[in-house]
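This part of the workshop introduces the protein records we will be handling. To make this concrete, we reproduce a full record directly below:
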Amino acid sequence: MDFESFMHLLEFSKDIPLAVECREIPDLSKMCEEVPVKKSVSFSPNVKVTSYTEPRKNNMSPKYNLPYTNEDVMEQFCKNGMYLDNLEDQLEIVENGVFNDGDVVNDTATRNKTPILKNYEVRKKVKENFMNQKDVISYVTTSILLDGNGIIKDIPMDLFLDCIANMMEIYEHLETEESCYTLSYRESVTISNRPGKRQRHIIEKKILELTNSYL
């Protein structure tokens, strides 16, 4: 389209009536979604602590042999499903045991390549590096009480005296009836003074032995 044709079209459009459509202005307040108020949690500076104490004897599980019944199975028959009457069930248990011992479950190649220390080598390493323990006094005290006096020749005299003092503190702690003292959390070794587990005399005997033999 050239310029003259465009001007002619423009003049012609002046005679065409304009149609205007009126639309209602929307209410923006209705278009906005209501935002829920977020709940916040605040911590009170006043700490409320509730403690519950109970005698340890209430949690004791007595050790005793259960009475014999007709449904009991001898221990030697518990291996390889020999307690089962169905031969197929026995063979299934045997097959499952062989599978669990096989290479599919166990990485025998890696296990064979991995050097494993003997028990005496582990004890030797522990003896050589006991000073690296976080609580040397507690560790050596526990070692003397559980494993004997072999470690004493490898420790200085001041540490030895600290261990005896530690045993005296344990002895005093066990003076209370129903008391208990944890020697080693890692090995779950405790010593108690309660009915059925009167062990306070062990500490007293060991203190007398150490003082008479080394002091």
User: Anything to note?
Assistant: The first strand starts at residue 179 and ends at 184. Residues 90 and 207 are 56 Å apart (CA to CA). The radius of gyration is 41 Å. The helical segments are 3-13, 28-31, 87-100, 108-113, 119-128, 136-147, 157-173, 200-214.
